[in-house]
Amino acid sequence: MLTKKQSELLRFINERLKETGVPPSFDEMKDALDLRSKSGIHRLIMALEERGFIRRLPNRARALEVLRLPESSTPAGAPRGGRFSPSVIEGNLGRLRQPTAPDDTANNNVAIPVMGRIAAGTPISAIQSRSHTISMPADMLGNGDHYALEVRGDSMIEAGILDADTVIIRRQETAETGDIVVALIDDEEATLKRLRKRGASIALEAANPAYETRIFGPDRVRIQGKLVSLMRKY
Fold first, then answer.
1. Which one of 30, 155, 201, 226 is the catalytic residue?
2. pTM as predicted
3. Is 5 part of the annotated catalytic residue set?
4. Which residue in 39, 193, 197, 201 is the catalytic one?
């Protein structure tokens, strides 16, 4: 699925290619989407490339090729006629009730909804639809509302979080320095990173030396939850 900004950028690139045969510049894309910096365009392009919508051609400046378009012009997850909200939690989880799984009552297990994928690497959009549930022992969770996300990427490998792991997240809007959190950047991109508070700024720190720490103003990052547990299949 695409966020609103990703869908807008994809349409803009496709229309410009059809009109002129030349992809738009980063400045043109930034102005068309009313973004504050070209770094936002870079993140959107990487997300579109990861999803197989566009391809960057090697050894050619500004060379982009549109491989496919979404089936619908409306971004997935956006209500028709309404405002699209890419938050991992808002609009779908709300104050999530966690029913005890019927088959696991005797074992005191809890059914946790799996809400899609989260990036541990280049930020990707978090899917906002409940796909299935997993069963977790209640004593591994503690208090609060919980949800699960499937990890994509390797930026947290030194924290023991690997690609294809399933992380259990407690829903909360605040976190302390050192916590591993689901962070929503610019209301568009979600990522799993370690939180560091640096004065008035927020640093999202990878656990892999191949990835740099990214620093944002406090108005650009919203905490969507804190990592409390992890599941892995072998």
1. 155
2. 0.57
3. no
4. 193
